[in-house]
Design goal:
Layout lengths: L4 H10 L6 H23 L29 H5 L5 E2 L2 E2 L7
Antiparallel strand pairs: 1-2
């Protein structure tokens, strides 16, 4: 069901977008094209198709997990106002 120019004006008003008459005609054509594509996709039979998280098989390239910095936690916590069991203590902000 294609959009009418009045419907495009209403959508533009709801989106707080100001469109001139030529822009309304362009937006109408683009939106109708998008809705046509959606109708085509909805008509596609997807029974038996396993959902995928990505369109292609992606493999994340991982680097070796190794320590590159020296442990300075004790040095950093030595200047903190309050520390308990390796954690910084801060004032409670939610009652």
């Amino acid at each position: 069901m294609p959009l009418t120019p009045d419907e495009v004006r209403r959508v533009a008003m709801l989106a707080r977008i100001e469109l001139s008459e030529p822009e309304i005609a362009t937006a109408q054509a683009q939106l109708n094209s998008i809705f046509s594509l959606i109708e085509t996709l909805q008509a596609t039979d997807t029974k038996g198709v396993t959902p995928m998280s990505h369109a292609g098989d992606l493999v994340a390239r991982l680097r070796e997990d190794r320590v590159t910095e020296i442990d300075q936690r004790d040095r950093f916590q030595s200047v903190a106002p309050q520390v308990e069991r390796g954690l910084y203590l801060v004032p409670r902000v939610i009652e």
